[in-house]
Amino acid sequence: MAIQTYYAGLDCQDCTEGMKQIRGCYEEVPYTEFEFEGEVLKQCPLKLISPLSRLMLQFYSFMEDGFLPNRGSLLEQPYRYLVGVSIIKEELGRIREDERKNREKERAVRGSGAPPPKRRKK
């Protein structure tokens, strides 16, 4: 879930107080606009992410911008960092590939004259 929220660009700073209440940032609500693996969440997905996962996503973002957590080359970085970044990169690749396949399916459906399928919110 952490990687999906990163990919979706969710950020607490972007939410107004009203959005935070509707999205279940302070307490669970009957339902939110968020869905994960077919289940509608009752609170903001950012509240369900561990501090370590958030930190790894920050480090991944820094790495994409060309910064590593420690001095030296990639091979001089902590093993846990390298494993975490590899997992994030692999999962982001899978998400992007799934989206590409869905776009292709939508194009094929539109080309056949059938109405496009309804999109599910993530």
Structural notes for this entry:
By secondary structure, the protein is mainly α. The chain has 2 domains: 1-47, no CATH class; 50-115. Helix content is 50%, strand content 3%. The chain has 4 helices and 2 strands, in the order ααββαα. It has helices spanning 2-8, 17-22, 51-64, 79-112, and strands at residues 35-36, 39-40. The protein has a two-stranded antiparallel sheet. A hairpin with a 2-residue loop joins β1 (35-36) and β2 (39-40). α3 (51-64) crosses α4 (79-112). The mean pLDDT is 87.
Q: H/E order of the elements?
A: HHEEHH
Could you give a short account of the major beta sheet? 2 strands, antiparallel
- The number of helical elements comes to 4
Q: From the helix content, strand content and strand pairing, which structural class follows?
A: mainly alpha
- Oligomer, anyone? single chain
Estimate the mean pLDDT confidence: 87
Tell me the β content.
under 5%
Count of all domains:
2
Helix content: 40-55%
* Low-pLDDT residue intervals, each spanning 5 or more residues: none
Q: Output the strand order for the largest sheet.
A: 1-2
Please give the radius of gyration in angstroms: 18 Å
Number of strands: 2
Q: How many angstroms does the end-to-end distance come to?
A: 10 Å
Shape: flat
